[in-house]
Each structure stands twice: as structure tokens, then as C-alpha cells.
Amino acid sequence: MSKEQQIDSLLHEERRFPPSAEFAAQAIGQASLYEQASDDREGFWATQSRELLHWHKPFTEVLDWSNPPFAKWFADGTLNVAYNCLDRHVAAGLGDRVALHFEGEPGDRRDITYAELTSEVKKAANLLSSLGLTQGDRVIIYMPLLPEAIIAMLAVARLGAIHSVVFGGFSAESLRARIDDAEAKMVITADGGNRKGSVFPLKAAVDQALADGKTSVEKVLVVQRGGNEVEWTSGRDLWWHEEMTPMSDDHRAEAFEAENPLFILYTSGTTGKPKGILHTSGGYLTQASFTHKNVFDLHPETDVYWCTADIGWITGHSYVVYGPLANGATQVIYEGTPDTPHPGRWWEIIEKYGVSIFYTAPTAIRTFMKLGREIPQKFDLSSLRVLGTVGEPINPEAWMWYREVIGGNTTPIVDTWWQTETGAIMISALPGVTSTKPGSAQVPIPGICVDVLTEDGQQVGPEAGGLLVITEPWPSMLRGIWRDPERFQETYWSMFGTRYFAGDGAHLDKDSDVWLLGRVDDVMNISGHRLSTMEIESALVAHPMTAEAAVVGAHDDTTGQAVVAFVILKSRFAGTLSDEEVSHQLRAWVGEQIGAIAKPKRVFVVAELPKTRSGKIMRRLLRDIAEGRDVGDTTTLMDASVIRTISDSVNE
Ligand code: WT7
Q1: Comparing C-alpha atoms, which of 277, 88, 87, 109 is closest to residue 181?
Q2: Which of 215, 220, 454, 580 is buried most deeply by CB count within 10 Å?
Q3: Burial of 256 (0-12, 13-18, 19+ CB in 10 A)
């Protein structure tokens, strides 16, 4: 099927799954939310914010958009984000409620109540401030998914400081780049974490990142987890457990302005350098908590929620840490991989804890689909009542499998579209209201306005494709790129003025439902994780063997896209190694430079790359080749025979 035919069949999807009358009647998010928001959008967000959060000093201003694209929400109010996630629940008598059911990969487990979590965060806040951390300082968190990672995030937030979580799968090089860009004062890490049955070292990568001593980092706090041996730099390194023991759990949360920065999260853009996406406090927490409650139909007294994302990604920030904890939810967190020690581990966890709301990525669903329904069918999944998906488009086939096999043919599925930049869910069904449609993210949530435009800013109307934009500012929007206001303006606001350009292609069907069609820029989406073609190309050409490199995201049945690299070797290396050996070395190199997630699935050694007359690499043609299609229009190519040569060598 061609891409066009595929899109066409998607858009004529006739299956509809309305919520059951029973579900609709008890649903938290009702249709009236849409009316309230369209009557008075800012008033709607103000009401939500007042109802969902504890404001130390109530705000009187809602949105300040006088200097676009720099928005301020609830600017004259003050609050403490950690207080909102912890203390107030304890004060409301919910201290004994489990906040975290932690499941370690080796099978160890811990239940942590809101009272215990609050007390741990207070101790950690005392520890961090005794080490000199104050408002506005940056802390890098480089950890496995452990309760301590969440405690660290909340302790940093409690002090009005800024965390930047770096996914544990990123290399020492990537870590160093983020430490430098954020000028972090401290790193919180672990000796190691459990993954696929063995321990992967993290502290060692921190040591490597800081090895030259030319760094802003003063202290490294190390949580003991892997039990692996670590090297120690005295004066700099401290064991978390040793430092925490003497700390008092008495700590008063100070209120900070609504626009106080909460975190920086680095994500890939179209250039080689990751962008430090900046989020602030009041607006972010409002939308994270609103969406978590309404999109997942959270009944905090009875639900057990599980989002499988790592805290290294935005999904982990908004839907493992801030949304669920602000809402007083009980949730599962799991340290390891889905297939350890057996391929039914996730389903076993759902059965064990009685998980009722489950949120994961299409890649995971497609992987399980391939393994066969016999595996989940061995477990009792009847506790599930809402399923969510995020990170990449979900094909209708995977959607249907998810509903039938995991959801027992009854649970609503919410396909949630959003981005690191948007901070929280933007487009999604509401499970008690929307009649869902397999494959479409459907409608903007109440209070959010989106549109699909042509490149010159015209509305495309129903049954047409274009670029997705967000037409009005929203509470959890990014406030900028860390120390790079120009890049912020250029990336998101130079296309359509005060309308935000998301970087995604989208299509509206005849019901005006939105279908996401993937990135329109040089950003790839591999298993729901964002990677930049340029970043991987830069890594490849940094290898002594490589003269030139081009990277594309090619379609992959499981991971959505896969990284495919085309490289030209420097003449003195050409022919010295087999293509297999080159591929092996370059993949390992990219793993060291960026992280294992960025390793190309395939590396093709070629003699030339297709370029336009102005010297631009034509990635579109390379994608055609990588996906095994006939190459499209080559008229703008400098030398059309290049394509023949490349496809011949690829087909060999
Ligand atoms: C990009 C953002 C949002 C958390 C995870 C990814 C793609 C995200 C969907 C969806 C189709 C989706 C978009 C977007 N994306 N959710 N439901 N349907 N595409 O966050 O790393 O910032 O990536 O992920 O292309 O722009 P991210």
C-alpha cells in the first residue's frame, strides 16, 4: 500500500466505540467541560487551577500574552509544587494512601504511602539545601526508575530549584552536554540500575562526564541500587542513604511564583544540539493535573494507575510524577523491561496490583501483538477500565488489539497527542464522552485550540492534510528554550506568528477529527522517543572513518520508525573493512556518543549521497530507498545516477 492509500483507508475508518452508559454516568470528565471552555477559555483554566491546586497566594491574573511568544499564566499567584503533590494530601487525611507501588526488576517491592513520601521528600529537601542548593539552581537527575528519583525531583521542586532529568540510557557524552548547557550544580544518580536481568552502571557514566574536572558540578549524590562497584571522588561524591539518615523530616515548603521554573527537559530538535525545554510551575501543574484526572477518568480513592514511561521523558514528568501525585493517585512504578524475566511481566504486574488505568506507547503494544495474545491471556486483566497510548501514531490494527486483548473489548482507549514542549496532553478523547475511533487522536481537550493549516497559513478544512498548529496559548506550554530565546522563536513561532507550529503533519477527517501523520521536520520518532537526524549524523561524522553521513527515519512495523544511516568512508578506509564491520563499529560509536536508543538499525556504506544542486542531502530519496520503494522525483538532483548506485549497493 502506498502512503497515500494508507492515509486514505485510515481516514475512512468507520468503527466507533462510544462509552458504555455505565462508564459515561460515572465519568469525571463530562461534556459540559467543552462548553465551559468555549464560553470563556481563560476563565475555564482559572477555575480548573483553583479547584485542582492549592495556591499559597491566590492569583488574580490568568493569562498574560502581551509579549508573545512569551506567555505567563497565573503570574501573581504563588504556590509550592511539591506541597501540592504531597503535604496537602497528608493534611487532608490521605497520608495512609499508597502513592507508589514500586516493583523492582529483580522482584523486590516497596509500597510508599503519601505520608512516607512526604517525609522522604522533606528529608531530601533538607539534605539538598544543606548542600547549598537554592531557588533557581539546576540539578541533573540521572537515575533508573526508583522511588528515589521521584523523591529527588520533588525535593528539587520543593526548594524552587530546577531539575533536569537525563534518561539513564543516554551516554556520558550526552550527559555532559546537558550538564554544561544547564550549568548544573549537582548530579543525583545511582550506582547502577537493573535492566534485562543485569546491572547497568550509571555512576561510571557520571564519572566519565565529569572526568576533566572543568565542570559546574560541585556534588554528586549516589543512590545505592545496583550494588555494583563504583569509583569515588572524595569531596564530591556522597552516598544518598548516608546523607539522608541524619536529616530531619521537618521542612516547611516555601511558596514560589507561578512562573518559577520547575524543570528543563532536553529533547531533540532539527539541529545537532538538543533543546532545553523549559517548563514553569503553576500553569504546568494545572494542565498536568487536569488532563491526568479527566483524560484517564481518575477516581483516586479506587483506581490503581500505571504509566510505563521512564521519568527521563516528558511522559514520566507529567504522568508519573506531577499529574498523578497532584491528584493523590495510587500508582505502580516498575524499574525494568517488559520482558524480564518473562514476556508476561507487565501483565503479571497489572494482575498483581489490580491496575485499572494503563498508559503506554504503541511500540510496546505492537511488540506484544507480535508475541501473541496467549501471553496476556494467561493473566487476569479484568481490573483494567481505561487504556491510554502516547508517543507516536497508533495504527488501527494495534488499537483494536489493545482494546480486545488487553481491554477485554470494553475499555475505552484514549490516544493522547502532545509533546515535550506542550507539557501535557493536548489532543485526546475524553473516555466518558467521546465515541472513539481507532487510529485518530480525535479532538483537542477542553480549553485547547488547534488547527490544521497549509504552509502559507490557510485553514485546510475537512478531509484535507496540512500542518498542526495550536492557535491559543495554553497553561503548560513551554516558556522557552533554556538560554536560547532566538531558537525558541525561530523553531515554533516563525511559521505562523502567534500560532504555535508543532512540527507534525495532520489530517482532518469528515467529522473534523485529527489524525496525526508524523513529523514534518528532521525529527525521527523511534519507539515514541524523539531523535534528530542531524544529531546522529554529527555523531557519525565525528568518527575517524566517516567522511559524510545521512540519516533517515524509515518505517518500521514495530518501532514506528527505525534509524537508517548512509555513510561515505574516507578514502583511506574505503575497502579496508567489510561493510558488516563498519556497521558494527559505527553503531557502537553512536551508542557511546548519544546512547543506545540512537544506534542505527542499519548502516549502509555508499560511494555517494544524493544532493540537490545547492548541496542539500535529499533525505526523502534515501527514505524511499530504505523503505524499499521506487524513488520519487529526482529532477532536482545534481546527479541522478547517484541514486541508481546507492540503491544497487543497498539491494546487494
Ligand atoms: C512527538 C513529540 C508526548 C510524550 C511522548 C513524546 C509524536 C506524540 C502522539 C500521538 C501521534 C504522537 C508527535 C509529537 N506523538 N504523541 N498520540 N499520535 N503522534 O514526546 O518526545 O516530545 O515527541 O511525538 O510527532 O510531535 P516528544
Answers
A1: 277
A2: 220
A3: buried
Integer-rounded Cα Rg, in Å, for the chain is 24
Cβ 522 under 6 angstroms from ligand 1: no
504 lines ligand 1 (CB under 6 A): yes
Residue 552 phi/psi, 5-degree rounding, is: -135, 155
pTM, two decimals, is: 0.95
CA 243 to chain centre: 31
Backbone angles phi, psi at 646, to 5 degrees: -65, -50
User: For residue 181, how far is the Cα from the chain centroid?
Assistant: 20
Residue whose grid cell is 550509571: 202
Paired strand residues for 550: 566
Collapse the DSSP code of 583 into the 3-class scheme (helix H, G, I; strand E, B; otherwise coil) and give the result.
Answer: helix
How far apart, in whole angstroms, are the C-alpha atoms of residue 162 and residue 483?
A: 14
Considering only CA atoms, which residue is closest to atom 6 of ligand 1? 391
Q: Quick check: CB of 275 below 6 Å from ligand 1?
A: no
Q: Which of 37-45's residues contact partners 24+ apart within 8 Å by CB, and which partners? A: 37/446, 37/447, 38/446, 41/447, 41/449, 41/472, 44/446, 44/447, 45/73, 45/286, 45/287, 45/447, 45/475
Dihedral Cα 294, 298, 300, 302, nearest 10 deg: 150
Question: Sign of the CA dihedral 475, 481, 482, 486?
Answer: negative
Please enumerate in sequence order all residues whose Cβ is within 8 A of that of 78, keeping only pairs 6 or more positions apart, or say none. Answer: 55, 56, 57, 255, 256, 257, 258
Distance in angstroms (rounded) separating the CA atoms of residues 621 and 634? 8
Torsion (CA) 307, 119, 242, 172 in degrees, nearest 10: 30
What residues contact 404, with CB distance under 8 A and at least 6 apart?
Answer: none
pLDDT digit string (tens) for 92-101?
999 999 999 9
pLDDT digits (tens, 9 = 90+) for 478-519: 999 999 999 999 999 999 999 999 999 999 999 999 999 999
Cell of 617: 542531502
**Does residue 420 line the site of ligand 1, with CB under 6 A?**
yes
**Residue 526 and residue 263 in contact, taking contact as beta carbons nearer than 8 Å:** no
